[in-house]
Amino acid sequence: TASTALLSALAGLGFAAVAVAARLLPALTPSAVVSAPAAYLLASAGALAFLLYSVALQRGAVTAATAPMIVLQTATPSLLGVLVLGDAVRSGWLSAAAVGLVITVAGAVALARYDGLRSRRAPAPSLDNSRSGSPEESET
Fold this sequence. Notes:
Layout: H1 2-24, H2 30-35, H3 37-59, H4 62-83, H5 94-113, H6 116-120, H7 135-138
Helix pairs in contact: 1-3, 1-4, 3-4, 4-5
């Protein structure tokens, strides 16, 4: 569904923020980590991304929830590295990197739209005891 893809995309951006924040940490000594704003971004973005991905998995199929997240958590830091942080694509590999990105995005879009496995599964039983009715009652 659209909400699954949106939550997954936001989770991917959150995990991308984790990668960029880790790259921006000045050093891995305890005092440097505690005093670096990037460390707090890393922790909060990671927790939020985990929460968003968990909700996406509850709302939709695994493929629909995972594909956008993987693409954005990988492509976003890569692009930021090249455009902002001074990284570079190895000489002669820019075309291959661009083709790989296009194929990855196309595959993620196709997977995000695929919901075939979800319809074959029975819904998980509810843990909410406030709902009345048993499985036997619902089969009548």
